[in-house]
Every structure is written in C-alpha cells, then in structure tokens.
Design the sequence.
C-alpha cells in the first residue's frame, strides 16, 4: 500500500509543483511588479518608512498577490495568517481575530491575508473594520475583481489599493531563465515555441510555470527541442481570462465601444473577436452596437441604426457561427461612419428642461378643441395649417408661452447632419421672416 502511495507521487518527499518551488524568497525577486516591489516601488517605500497599512492587492490570477503578502509578513516580522473567502466563514474569522488579539497582547502583530476577499458578503467585510482600525491586524486582501464594485466603501477607505499587472513577455522570459537554473538544463523549446507559450499564458505566471513543468517533464535531457506543433501536443491551450459577470466583460465592451467612437474599425474588430472567442453572448454585443448607432452616430448616418438592427435580425436567423459575421459587418459600419452625439446631447438637454419646467401647457393654438367649453377657451384658435402655408411652413411658435423658443439640437458638419443643418437653417430663416 505504501509503495502505491509513494508511486502516485503523494509520498512525504514527493516533489512540489515548479510554481511552488520557484516561489520568490524576497520581495525584490517578484517579477513583473517593479512599480510595487522595485527599488522605487510603493511597497518598498512603505517598508523603508517602517509603516505598512492595510492593503488590497488587485490583479489578474498568477501575478504574485499571495507571494507578495507572504513575503511582506516575513520582511516586517508579522505573524502570517492566510484564509480564503471561498472556504471560510464567520467562525473562522472569529478564531483568526482572537488569535491576532492574543498576539497583540504579547507584543506581536498579525498580517492577515484574505484570498478572494470579494467573495465575502457585506457583513463579513464589515467584521474586519474594528480589528483594522485598532491595529489588531494588518489586512492584505487579494482580488481579481474591481474593488470599487466588489468591496464595501468602509473597508476600502481603510486600505490602500495596489494594482498588479499581467506578466509581460520580459517577466515570463525571466521565469524561463529561473526554471532553467532550477532544472539545471536549457528549456527544451525553440524560440517560436517559447513565444507561443508566452501568448498562451495570458499574463498568468502560475499557469506559465505549470506549462514549463509539463514541457520539462515531456522532453528528456538532451532531447530535441519542441517546435510550436510539438508544444501544442504537449500542453493544452486554455481560453483567455474572461468572466461574463465580472470585470473583463465590462473592460472589453468598453474597449469595443470606444474603438467604434474613435472610428477605428480594426481595433473594434479585435475587441469583438476577443469577446466572441471568450464566449460572450453575441446578442449582448449587438445591443451595445445599437446603442453606439444612436449615441455616437445618430443622424450623421441614419443607416448605422439600420445596420445594427439588421445584424440582430441576421444573427437570430442564422445563429452561430455564421451570424457573428453580420455583427462584425455592423461593427465595421458603425466604426467607419461619421460621428455625432448632437442628437444624444439634444435629448439630454430637452429632458433636463422638461424636468425643470414641469407641467407648462402647450400654447392654445396647437391644442384640439373637441368640446364647446374648450372652444370658448380659445383652444385651437389661430392655428395655421402648415400644409396650406407657403413652403408648407407657418413659422408659428410651438413652445409653451411661459418658456419662449429654445434650441437643443445642433447638427454637426459631418455626414447626413450636414444636410440637416441646411434644412434647419432654412426653417430658421423662414421663421424669422414670418414672425416679423
């Protein structure tokens, strides 16, 4: 039985994963986060000043949040406690707080690291507040989600948010070099295969080290270097990091919208492909494209709205994957269209005035008079039927008498709105002539 246990790799001396074995022993060894742990980094300055506040570490998976918290405790002499919001409840928190209180009475502080802190509900997050305020614990929370949305304002106000970056190519190359030293041999993959692995890692150092370990195990010392085809057979490519209910979802739809607004169809297509590849609901995207058509283009190109709605109809008719091409067509069209938010601004201005002016009555000349009493009150008296007027235009005032005439819509000199500007200027000229 014991032989089977040891053969399974679960014995006392079973090797730890490469990611664990290469875990940095000093903050300065953490890769890709020089803005935090480099010579002039935020955390380095905190340590030099001898004061460590409570911290929220916000960043993608595999960027060093847990490692930084553990090393921070080691370099400050604080007791290190680690819990996960996924597996811990109120009883676990009470136990940790009590142990920290006892340590404090004995003259030693506690650094409490809470992984996935955003998973705690409001009352659980509130439970940290008194212990953070009186110094019983130094809280270091880790989250992959935007703290502004996921953490209580009271907790955020007592902690400093530090942002960790995705590991770039330089940082991941340095991990290859460290792995080579640890394994005592060159990494058995050629240049293109290495670059392919870096792309597959999607900035996640832990995942990248796991891939390195797979390749080292698959290729014996002295074996032929893997090319990209051999690499694909050895490791499994994962989908890009994307949670349709979380931050990546909103970041990419924002990037798509701003690329369209900035008239960059290539960037817009890239972000569209990113979202569709990651499994986003195409109808969510096309709804946003409809919004772009009316908010950022409007009457500068009325066809944009038709294209967006047609993409929705085409996707409903064709389904996936052919229907995505119709969405791509709409995205390219709206990105290429002339831009104007004149209608959007005009509607907001009119809405604001409507709220301010309340229930002002329209002028009586444009009110119907279906009853005798209403006729006696001069409803409809003096109304001039525009079709009977020269140029089918009477020039009458249609605003409430207490307001006077106001202007909200101002077309831009782009696209179809250039033509609308000519029309409005023409009506304004006639209106002035007929009111004189």
Sequence:
């Amino acid at each position: 039985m014991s032989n089977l246990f040891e053969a399974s790799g679960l014995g006392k001396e079973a090797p730890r994963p490469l990611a664990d074995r290469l875990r940095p022993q000093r903050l300065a060894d953490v890769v890709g986060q020089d803005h935090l742990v480099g010579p002039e980094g935020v955390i380095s300055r905190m340590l030099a000043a001898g004061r460590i506040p409570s911290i929220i570490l916000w960043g993608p998976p595999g960027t060093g949040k847990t490692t930084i918290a553990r090393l921070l405790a080691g370099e400050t002499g604080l007791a290190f406690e680690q819990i996960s919001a996924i597996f811990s409840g109120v009883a676990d928190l009470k136990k940790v707080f009590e142990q920290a209180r006892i340590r404090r009475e004995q003259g030693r502080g506690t650094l409490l690291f809470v992984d996935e802190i955003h998973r705690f509900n409001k009352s659980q997050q509130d439970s940290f507040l008194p212990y953070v305020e009186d110094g019983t614990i130094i809280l270091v929370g880790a989250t992959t989600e935007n703290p502004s949305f996921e953490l209580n304002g009271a907790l955020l106000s007592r902690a400093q948010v530090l942002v960790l970056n995705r590991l770039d190519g330089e940082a991941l190359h340095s991990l290859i070099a460290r792995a080579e030293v640890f394994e005592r041999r060159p990494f058995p993959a050629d240049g293109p295969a290495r670059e392919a692995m870096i792309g597959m890692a999607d900035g996640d150092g832990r995942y990248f080290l796991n891939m390195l370990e797979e390749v080292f195990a698959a290729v014996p010392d002295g074996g032929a270097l893997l090319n990209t085809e051999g690499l694909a057979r050895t490791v499994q490519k994962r989908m890009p990091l994307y949670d349709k209910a979380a931050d990546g979802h909103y970041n990419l739809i924002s990037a798509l919208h701003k690329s369209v607004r900035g008239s960059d169809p290539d960037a817009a297509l890239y972000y569209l492909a990113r979202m569709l590849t990651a499994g986003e609901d195409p109808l969510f995207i096309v709804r946003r494209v409809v919004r772009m058509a009316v908010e950022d283009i409007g009457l500068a190109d009325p066809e944009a709205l038709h294209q967006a709605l047609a993409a929705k109809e085409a996707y409903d008719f064709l389904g996936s994957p052919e229907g995505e091409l119709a969405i791509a067509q709409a995205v390219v069209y709206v990105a290429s269209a002339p831009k104007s938010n004149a209608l959007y601004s005009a509607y907001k201005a009119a809405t604001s005035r409507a709220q301010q002016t309340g229930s002002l009555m329209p002028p009586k000349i444009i009110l119907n008079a279906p009853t005798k009493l209403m006729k006696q009150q001069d409803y409809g008296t003096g109304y001039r039927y525009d079709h009977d007027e020269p140029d089918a235009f009477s020039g009458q005032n249609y605003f409430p008498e207490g307001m006077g005439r106001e202007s909200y819509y101002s077309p831009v000199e782009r696209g179809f709105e250039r033509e609308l500007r000519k029309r409005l200027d023409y009506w304004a000229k006639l209106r002035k002539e007929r009111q004189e």
User: Anything to note?
Assistant: The two ends are 106 Å apart (CA to CA).
